[in-house]
Automatic annotation (TrEMBL), chain A:
Domain (ABC transmembrane type-1) ranges: 74-267
InterPro entries in the cross-refs: MetI-like, MetI-like_sf
Family under the similarity heading: Belongs to the binding-protein-dependent transport system permease family.
Gene3D superfamilies tied to this protein: MetI-like (1.10.3720.10)
Regions that span the bilayer: 20-39, 78-99, 111-136, 142-165, 186-211, 245-267
SUPFAM superfamilies: MetI-like (SSF161098)
Keyword Metal-binding: no
Full protein name: Carbohydrate ABC transporter permease
Membrane disposition: Multi-pass membrane protein
PROSITE patterns named in the record: ABC_TM1
Family annotation (CDD domains): TM_PBP2 (cd06261)
Highest taxon of the lineage: Bacteria
Automatic annotation (TrEMBL), chain B:
Similarity field: Belongs to the binding-protein-dependent transport system permease family.
TM region(s), chain numbering: 12-32, 74-96, 108-128, 158-179, 221-240, 265-289
Alphabetized InterPro entries for the sequence: ABC_transporter_permease, MetI-like, MetI-like_sf
Topology in membrane: Multi-pass membrane protein
The name this protein goes by in its record: Carbohydrate ABC transporter permease
Organism of origin: Halobacillus campisalis
Localization per record: Cell membrane
Length: 282, 297
């Protein structure tokens, strides 16, 4: 059904763009400004906090590296993120497969227990967890933190993987086990490769989650040498009130956000889809 | 299939038990033991843990700060629900119904803050609110409203409302996408029928879009409420630490202060139990209030 647009409608269509453009500026401006700030000297930030620098210089990044040893924090964050994401998969894939495909008594209950954990405020559990980690000698330890991270993302990961595995045709498993493949083989050589799309989606989201995480790191890590990037930034930020090292602070924020931007640029659709579906079904 | 019963159970155990043990140690045990800790007075060392029954709960009811933290939490919940839902719904309708060519660009941009770290968001916005260099005060000065400038996060009356903008800013994209998914599922024929009946775009929104995306709206509201009650303390901790003078403390940040800064671990656990009960209770009430039959035309 086509008809001529009235003048009012054309105006309306232009008008609708105004709020969209304003919100785009509201989202992008602070981020772009943070990038620019990381190339400005402190003097320039004070004199003209919202303008462009006279010349781009990398002193802030050098300072973040040397004065605040942010390289250690980046390295710690990398270890926690990669180990956490891998451990999540190792723990979640077999359970998701068993819940989805091997009908057993209590499988529904088990699934419900995992899913219910997504709704529970974990802050209550963090106090006992603190002392538990202390007993295991895993307090103030990035490997302990990676383990805590992995288990914290288990419910979400199991949830996403079961729904992906339910789309794999059953006949594939059956014919493989007819050919003499053990159930372990079926899981490793049939199911895992066929759910790769789900595994990738959930791993990207876990990776971003672990890279960004702040509060558990704040509670479970104590010495500066073990700080993850989020804690290092928080530390630089609280120092900046006295040292006024704003440029260094912006540089460290930039270091934290660039990997996320890169992941988002590559996997934008997967991330958006994974997060909306996780929220809708959960 | 050639497989004995024993083999089958061994495989099942292999799949389930290691994962469940890890989950029990790091999730189930801490939750239940948090409940147990709430009956003790405990400063963290193993010797001086004393059972005090319901004393922590009595203290909770007599603590003047607790009602404030609850109020602050629900203030943020209400502000975020209204702010996020109005804007997300507006953007979702604009990007799906109005055939804007560059819609994918807006979608990608608006979603990005959802995957930013709360630390980055909090610090960025703390700088935007900075009294001497921040964007807000510079902007007000530029348009001649010097009298409105203030130390936003340092002002007892303005610190909490100032936290709304970053929370909405960070949250909109996800809910916009959820609502867009709902709108995309509404069949075009409803709009055509409405148009033939002479309904304008505004009426179409109220009579067609809104009832049919109600399930997505409901889930979005629930999701905002749950994530705010369970996680608002993170942005509070980063931006204000609960200050000035407790004016931004929410339940979670007060728990952190009591347990991990003042070493009242028993009392902290009691606050945790309160958070658990309030958040479950709120979700149940909301689900009851929003139980509206799905509309089918």
């Amino acid at each position: 059904m086509r008809r001529k647009r009235s003048v009012g409608q054309i105006m309306g269509r232009a008008g609708i763009r105004i709020p969209l453009i304003l919100w785009t500026i509201a989202v992008l401006y602070p981020i772009i400004w943070m990038f620019i700030g990381s190339f400005k000297s402190n003097g320039e930030i004070y004199a003209n906090p919202w303008g462009m620098p006279d010349q781009f210089n990398f002193d802030n990044f050098v300072q973040a590296w040397t004065d605040y040893s942010i390289d250690t924090s980046v390295f710690n964050s990398l270890i926690v993120t990669v180990l956490g994401a891998l451990l999540t998969l190792v723990l979640a894939i077999p359970t998701a497969y068993a819940i989805e495909r091997l009908r057993f008594r209590g499988s529904h209950l088990l699934f419900t227990v995992y899913i219910a954990a997504m709704m529970i405020p974990m802050v209550l559990g963090w106090i006992p967890l603190f002392f538990l980690l202390q007993q295991f000698n895993l307090l103030d330890n990035i490997y302990g933190l990676a383990m805590v991270y992995a288990v914290s993302q288990l419910p979400f990961t199991i949830f996403v993987l079961t729904s992906f595995m339910s789309t794999i045709p059953k006949s594939l498993e059956e014919s493989a086990s007819m050919d003499g493949l053990s159930p372990y083989g079926v899981l490793l050589k049939i199911i895992t490769p066929l759910s790769m799309s789900g595994i990738i989606t959930v791993t990207i989201m876990n990776t971003i989650q672990f890279w960004n995480e702040y509060f558990m790191a704040l509670i479970f890590l104590q010495t500066e040498g073990n700080y993850t990037l989020a804690l290092a930034i928080d530390y630089i930020s609280s120092e900046a009130e006295y040292t006024n090292a704003w440029g260094t602070l912006f540089a460290s924020l930039t270091i934290a956000i660039v990997p996320v931007i890169i992941l988002y640029a590559i996997f934008q659709q997967r991330i958006a889809k994974g997060m909306t579906e996780g929220a809708i079904k959960g | 299939m050639v497989q004995s019963k024993k083999q089958k159970y061994t495989f099942l155990a292999f799949c389930l038990i290691p994962t469940f043990i890890m989950f029990s140690i790091f999730t189930l045990y801490p939750l239940f033991s948090g409940l147990y800790y709430s009956f003790f007075e405990w400063s963290g060392s193993s010797q001086d843990k004393t059972f005090i029954g319901f004393d922590n709960y009595i203290e909770l009811f007599n603590d003047d700060i607790i009602p404030q933290t609850i109020y602050h939490d629900y203030f943020l919940v209400a502000a975020k629900v209204v702010g996020i839902m109005v804007l997300a719904l507006f953007f979702a309708v604009a990007l799906t119904q109005l055939k804007i060519k560059e819609a994918p660009f807006y979608r990608i941009v608006f979603f990005f803050p959802n995957i930013m770290s709360v630390v980055v968001i909090g610090i960025l916005w703390a700088f935007i609110y900075n009294p001497s260099m921040g964007l807000v005060n510079s902007g007000l000065e530029a348009i001649g409203l010097e009298s409105w400038t203030r130390a936003w996060l340092g002002d007892e009356d303005w610190a909490l409302p100032s936290l709304i903008l970053p929370s909405v800013w960070a949250g909109i994209g996800l809910f916009m996408l959820m609502l867009m998914g709902g709108i995309a599922n509404v069949s075009k024929s409803y709009y055509e029928a409405a148009e033939i009946d002479g309904a304008n775009e505004w009426q179409q929104f109220w009579k067609v879009t809104l009832p049919l995306v109600w399930p997505q709206i409901k889930i979005s509201i629930l999701y905002i409420v749950i994530t705010t009650l369970n996680g608002s303390f993170i942005i509070v901790q980063v931006m204000t630490g609960g200050g000035p003078n407790n004016s931004t403390h929410v339940m979670g940040s007060y728990l952190y202060q009591q347990a991990f800064q003042q070493y009242n671990f028993g009392y902290g656990a009691t606050i945790g139990v309160m958070i658990l009960i309030l958040s479950l209770f709120t979700v149940m009430i909301l689900q009851f209030l929003m139980r509206r039959e799905r509309v089918e035309y």
